[in-house]
Here is the input.
Amino acid sequence: MKKSERQQVIKNIIQANKIGTQEELLTAIQNNGINATQATISRDIREIGIVKVREGSQTFYSLLKQENEQVGFELNVAYKTFVLNVAQAEFVLVIKTAIGDANALASILDESEVPGLVGTIAGADTILLITKSLQHASELKQIIESQISLA
Here is the structure.
């Protein structure tokens, strides 16, 4: 089976089921007649743009990017969904999220090509956003704050 075909099966499985672990995904793939290794599945997850999202107390895989869409979540919706608060330290922003949500938001930010954003570092509930300048950090902080105040 071609890589593109395997990845399409993975997308279909993720969209149809709430898969919480790579082991569950590997089992589902094998149930579809595909032989793959854990390492292959891990690479596919990264290449496809699959992230873990939280719904209540449950976490599961979701597609970050949908076909023919720039990003699975519009940034403003992602801010409202994930950001608890944001603080600025010079050209760095520190975003607090619920436990387990930081990686999903960081992935969305990395894919979105936010003006002035150099990169992100995510833990379980905290993201560092490194920007090009103090001005970029201030502008991005204002955007985020305006969105989370509307939530």
User: Anything to note?
Assistant: The radius of gyration is 17 Å. The CA atoms of residues 96 and 126 lie 5 Å apart.
